[in-house]
Automatic annotation (TrEMBL):
NCBIfam families: ant_ant_sig (TIGR00377). PROSITE patterns: STAS. SUPFAM superfamilies: SpoIIaa-like. Belongs to the anti-sigma-factor antagonist family. Residues 19-128 form the STAS domain. Gene3D superfamilies: STAS domain. It comes from Actinomadura parmotrematis. This is Anti-sigma factor antagonist.
C-alpha cells in the first residue's frame, strides 16, 4: 500500500492456508487486503490478524475482499465477531469489493445487516471521511450477529 499515509504492517503479507492477508493503513484507517479462500482451515489465524489490525486504529477497519473467491460459514463467523467487536469499541467495519459468490453469501445470510459494504477501498475511505450515502447505520443488532 503506497498512497498518502499508507504503510504496510510488518510482515506485509502473511500467507495462511489458501489465503493471504496484507495489512496496513490508508487515510488513517486500518486496511486488510485478503486474497484466496476464507474457510475452516484459516479462519482462526485470519480472525487474529483482523483483530490485531482493528486494535491498531481508533476509527475503522476496511477489509478488501476483491480477491476473495470463497467464504464459508467459519469465515462469516470471523466477520460476525469483528462486527460485534467494532460495535462494542465504537469503531466501524467496512468490507470492500465483495464479488460474485462471496457477495451472495454475505447477502443471503444477512451478514450485510451487521456491517457496511462499499464497492472499493477508495469508496470506503470516502464514505468514512463523510461522503456517507446511507442514511442509517447497519442494524443496531450487531451485538447479536450470528456466531
Amino acid at each position: 500500500m503506497a498512497e498518502g499515509d499508507d504503510r504496510p504492517a510488518a510482515p506485509a503479507a502473511v500467507p495462511l492456508d489458501r489465503l493471504s492477508v496484507e495489512t496496513g493503513t490508508r487515510a488513517g484507517y486500518a486496511v486488510a487486503r485478503l486474497a484466496g479462500s476464507v474457510e475452516l482451515g484459516n479462519h482462526e489465524p485470519l480472525r487474529e490478524r483482523l483483530v490485531e489490525a482493528l486494535a491498531g486504529t481508533r476509527a475503522a477497519l476496511i477489509v478488501d475482499m476483491a480477491q476473495v473467491t470463497f467464504c464459508d460459514s467459519s469465515g462469516l463467523g470471523v466477520f460476525a465477531h469483528l462486527a460485534r467487536r467494532c460495535r462494542s469499541d465504537g469503531k466501524t467495519l467496512v468490507v470492500a469489493g465483495l464479488r460474485d459468490r462471496v457477495a451472495q453469501v454475505f447477502q443471503i445470510t444477512g451478514m450485510l445487516a451487521f456491517l457496511y459494504a462499499e464497492p472499493t477501498v477508495p469508496d470506503a475511505v470516502a464514505w468514512l471521511d463523510g461522503d456517507r450515502r446511507r442514511s442509517r447505520p447497519p442494524l443496531q443488532a450487531a451485538d447479536r450477529a450470528p456466531e
